[in-house]
Specification:
Radius of gyration of chain B: 25 Å
Helix content of chain B: 55-70%
CATH architecture of chain B: Up-down Bundle
Order of helices and strands of chain B: HHHHHHHHHHHHHHHHHHEHHEH
Largest interface: A-B, 29 and 38 residues
Shape of chain A: flat
Strand order of the largest sheet of chain B: 1-2
Number of strands of chain B: 2
Bound molecules: protoporphyrin IX containing FE, copper (II) ion
Oligomer: heterodimer
Structural class of chain A: mainly alpha
Helix content of chain A: 55-70%
Number of domains of chain A: 2
Radius of gyration of chain A: 25 Å
Number of strands of chain A: 0
Number of helices of chain B: 21
Strand content of chain B: under 5%
Distance between the termini of chain B: 67 Å
Largest sheet of chain B: 2 strands, antiparallel
Structural class of chain B: mainly alpha
Chain lengths: 132, 662
């Protein structure tokens, strides 16, 4: 059987991956680095929101970049999304989540914008009322 | 501020004979059951073996019992509405006043979706998925118990609304602005919101639990493409739960903020936008229908394969179709509000996606047909439900494709044509599926089969009654009858609604047959006993252990080498003409320890839910603190497993010899 190795740890079973390898991304150091990065990103975003050093319309963009970086930090350092072999499930789940968020947010924005547009009183009609 | 918030004696509708009669009946029933249990001395047993149990099989059974009890309530609401509509034509006003009728259709919809269909599906998954995967429990057993008890809390609050206060009059989706404080100042909408918030959290936790279990805890050798189809559909359904239920929770939280703290998310004034509620509700709502129906599809697949004595036709296409539906179900939600003012192009886009999602479902139907084609089909009760499903569901699905055409939807939107359509998919799809699963796995759960004759009678009553009750609604819908009518003037509708009433009575007969079926089966359990653990000549791992399975499910975890592992194993044994030598090297097994945490959390959840509904703030604080303290205490536990000694496992295995052990 070639696929004999394709299984995950079941209760009562020995772990499939040796403990030493498992620890690759969950040590104390990793969490500390993650925490530091997360704090730095948080503090920076407060600074960005209040500063006048940056061109004002650029602030939202800056905040968005920082937020996305923050997500990345959380995923890598706290949720251990890596490219390792045991992480296929996690990566797939993440991809699914991102896809759904994209569909839901994107869809809602399109739908709501479209509804708003259609609900606006048409300019000709407004004119009609004024002319009368 | 008074000590009891808005609560006083006027909350109990003493002047309403129908409500008071029902409440009286329910109180008598509950009190007599409780005192019977206490007098017989069953309380310690129930507490030890069921209420605090974290065993997925027990939790599954409790979910199903809960759902079946609520089916009675939901059906009572349904037949009350049918009776009202059968008589309240022209000059006659019927027996239900409008404000009561409004609560009934809202409660019926809410109960049927959240407290019948959901717990049935989740209960069956709880029972069968770990067994099919060949493992000993779900990933987080105690969380599983919390999930169940939170669902039960929602059920309890909904039922309390009958006696104390009122239920929502807003329909089962509580659209604002009607559901806002301005137009629904009573506690009805609050009952709706808090019940669903509690049970929603429970459902989300279940979703997390099952996704983890299926992805991480399969028997040795069970790669993805060797998983039974029911596990695949359970995976898809739970992925949808994890992605969809937070939307519902956030949505209800926003409506609660509007109602309690004067926010303006969905109000008419101050920049609120009620359309956003509608949009987000169906972002959850459409995936929800697939959360319900995908596991039912899984059950039909298992039943079709088992009772045709063949492997499932097109396993890979089945998996692919399931996962395609899982993703596509997030691309169609606008079809629930075609008429709300989107432009033609947006409507057309969602209309087309809605038609496309029918394709994978069609693939599945053909797979089931080809599975049965050429097989030696045994016409047992689960098979009858399956065939009944295939015949009706295809038509219900086709009326759905009709409704996916925006132009058609504009004509029949909010008519009883729609009511006919969604009952036509949800009853043959979800309910028939769960009935098939219930008859199919019952012997596994309790060690004896359900009576066939009463089971068949129940099926035929449901099947015929369903068509009598809902086909007429297509007709009156096309004649222009709107949904949710307490009274109407068009006498031409009445004959059709009388037929529908007869249909509901036939369904009632079916339900009675099911009750009789249980009683008769328990009486005759010795004749119906399943000693082999494999009463149907099954194909998947749940049939390889004893019926009912021990707390540890499998003495030795099965090794899986192919799809339909148990079937293949039986074939090998037959070919060799001898039973494999039993290995006697049993090892002690750790099983999760019982825990009252689920029950306690739910108790506090009910307290705070009730308090929040009635604005009794001190009590709400008490409930929240209590729940938090319970969870905290649980986190500091020192022991969460008990060890079953090897000789006990050995003893059980010798007392329950299964036909072939893996
Ligand atoms: C078992 C027999 C059933 C009967 C006799 C029945 C009857 C009815 C009736 C008369 C209505 C009101 C139609 C109207 O608006 O004019 C209704 C609505 C509804 N039913 Fe059922 N029903 C049954 C089963 C179910 C099941 C199994 C489900 C779901 C799992 C369900 C879900 C709903 C929903 C969501 C509504 C809409 C409620 C609303 O308008 O807000 N029903 N049903
Ligand atoms: Cu839909």
């Amino acid at each position: 059987m070639t696929t004999e190795t394709h299984w995950h740890v079941a209760p009562g079973d020995l772990p499939a991956i040796p403990a030493s390898e498992q620890n690759a991304s969950s040590g104390f150091l990793v969490y500390t680095i993650g925490l530091l990065l997360a704090v730095i990103l948080t503090v920076t975003s407060f600074w960005v929101a209040n500063t006048s050093v940056i061109w004002a319309p650029g602030v939202p963009a800056g905040l968005a970049v920082l937020a996305i970086a923050q997500m990345g930090v959380h995923l890598v350092f706290f949720l251990h999304i890596t490219t390792g072999p045991d992480s296929t499930n996690n990566v797939l789940a993440l991809a699914f989540g991102v896809l759904i968020v994209f569909l839901v947010l994107g869809g809602s924005l399109v739908i709501m914008a479209n509804l708003n547009e259609n609900m606006m009183p048409h300019t000709e009609m407004m004119n009609l009322q004024i002319e009368r | 501020m008074t000590l009891l918030g808005k609560l006083d004696w006027s909350a109990v509708p003493l002047d309403q004979p129908i409500i008071m009669g029902t409440v009286g009946g329910m109180v008598v029933a509950i009190v007599s059951i409780l005192s019977w249990v206490t007098l017989k001395g069953y309380v310690p047993y129930l507490w030890r073996e069921w209420i605090t149990s974290v065993d997925h099989k027990r939790i599954g059974v409790m979910y199903i019992v809960l759902a079946l009890v609520m089916l009675l309530r939901g059906f009572a609401d349904g037949i009350m509405m049918r009776t009202q509509q059968a008589v309240a034509a022209g000059g006659a006003q019927g027996y239900l006043p409008p404000e009561h009728f409004d609560q009934i259709f809202s409660a019926h919809g809410t109960i049927m979706i959240f407290f019948v269909a959901m717990p049935l599906v989740i209960g069956l998954m709880n029972f069968a998925v770990p067994l099919q995967l060949g493992v000993r429990d779900v990933a987080f057993p105690t969380m599983n118990s919390i999930s169940f008890w939170l669902t039960a809390s929602g059920v309890l609050l909904t039922n309390v609304s009958l006696a104390v206060g009122e239920f929502a009059k807003t329909g089962w989706f509580a659209y604002p602005p009607l559901s806002e404080l301005q137009f629904s100042p009573g506690v009805g909408v609050d009952y709706y919101l808090w019940s669903l918030q509690l049970s929603g959290i429970g459902t989300l936790l279940s979703g997390v639990n099952f996704v983890t279990t299926i992805l991480k805890m399969r028997a040795p050798g069970m790669s993805y493409m060797r998983m039974p189809v029911f596990c695949w559909t359970a995976l898809a359904s739970n992925l949808l739960i994890v992605a969809a239920f937070p939307v519902l929770t956030a949505l209800f939280a926003m409506l609660l903020l509007d109602r309690y703290l004067g926010f303006h998310f969905f109000t008419v004034d101050a920049g609120g936008n009620a359309m956003m509620y509608v949009n987000l509700f169906w972002v959850w709502g459409h995936p929800e229908v697939y959360i319900l129906v995908l596991p039912a599809f899984g059950i039909f697949s298992e039943v079709a394969a088992t009772f045709s004595g063949k492997s499932l036709f097109g396993y890979r296409s089945m998996v692919l179709a399931t996962m395609t539906i899982c993703v596509l179900s997030y691309t169609v939600w606008l079809h629930h509000f075609f008429t709300m003012g989107a432009s033609a192009s947006v409507n057309a886009f969602f209309g087309i996606t809605s038609m496309i999602i029918g394709v994978p479902t069609g693939v599945k139907v053909f797979n089931w047909l080809f599975t049965m084609y050429g097989g030696r089909v045994r016409f047992t009760v689960p098979v009858l439900w399956t065939i009944g499903f295939m015949m009706s569901f295809v038509f219900g699905g086709l009326t759905g494709v009709l409704l996916a055409l925006p132009a058609v939807d504009w004509q029949v939107h909010n008519s009883v044509f729609l009511v006919a359509h969604f009952h036509h998919v949800i009853i043959p799809g979800v309910l028939f599926g769960c009935m098939a699963g219930y008859n199919y796995w019952f012997p596994k759960a309790f060690g004896f089969r359900l009576d066939e004759r009463w089971g068949k009678a129940a099926f035929w009553c449901w099947f015929i009654g369903f068509h009598l009750a809902f086909m007429p609604l297509y007709v009156t819908g096309l004649m222009g009858m709107p949904r949710r009518l307490q009274h109407y003037d068009v006498l031409a509708w009445q004959p059709w609604l009388l037929v529908a009433e007869v249909g509901a009575l036939v369904i009632l007969t079916g339900i009675i047959c099911q009750i009789v079926q249980i009683v008769v089966s328990i009486r005759h359990r010795e004749q119906l006993r399943d000693t082999t653990g494999d009463p149907w000549n099954g194909r998947t791992l749940e049939w390889s252990t004893a019926s009912p399975p021990p707390a540890w499910n499998f003495a030795v975890l099965p090794r899986v080498h192919e799809l339909d592992a148990f079937w293949a194993h039986k074939q090998r044994v037959l070919a060799k003409q001898r039973l494999p030598v039993r290995q006697h090297a049993y090892q002690p097994i750790e099983v999760p320890k019982n825990s009252p945490v689920g029950f306690a959390t739910a108790f506090f959840a009910v307290v705070s839910g009730f308090a929040l509904i009635w604005h009794i703030w001190w009590m709400a604080g008490f409930g929240v603190l209590g729940a938090a303290a319970t969870l905290l205490a649980f986190m500091f536990r020192t022991k969460d497993e008990v060890e079953i000694p090897a000789d006990q496992v050995d003893l059980f295995d010798r007392a329950h010899p299964v036909e072939v052990s893996l």
